[in-house]
Hints:
By secondary structure, this protein is an all-alpha fold. Helix content is 76%, strand content 0%. The longest helix has 29 residues, at 153-181.
Amino acid sequence: MATPSDLSTQLAVNxxxxxxxxxxxxxxxxxxxxxxxTGLLIGFFLPGDSLLFTAGLLCTGTSGRSVHLSLxxxxxxxAVGALAGAQCGYLLGRRAGGALLARSRSxxxxxxxxxxxxxxxxxxxxxxxxxxRFVPVVRTVLNPLAGALGxxxxxxxxxxxxxxxxxxxxxxxxxxxxxSAIPNVDAYLLPLVALIVAVSLIPLGTEVLRSRRAAKGAxx
Length: 220
């Protein structure tokens, strides 16, 4: 049974800070956060990339922090949260259309929706769904947008599963690998998280450059 001090700690959690979330909710929190970030429009601000990387780091036990997670349950929670969230977002989009997005006043959310729609139009369903996993906010809005735009359920499920597993397990294992290889790696946590987020954008950047070169070649 949770004590009043435990409850106060959980209530005081900073949802924008990965370590704070993990300290309060552990592995279960990873699954819930990824579900909310990828399945519910209200979760667009949650720190999915940094949460996965930090959680993997905390599985090594080499950091000086008090939080320690188990890798096996973490990988399961990350995969389930990422895949179930995306599928839920898609189903919400099919039923509610663009109504949910239209009600939001967040400029950041609408900007993400525009980028998600551009991805779908430019790269097709498969590439867009996989690439969106690596772009904050876009991975939140692309799923309901795909449902609202009538992307076939079978195609969406296949490619969101591929992208979801590569993203969730890849970032978690990257954190675990670095934490195992570098002593006291938590001292460099903030720059490492920034680096991981930057690296996660490489697939999208590569596709954008390839598309621009192809367009120039067609015009030439």
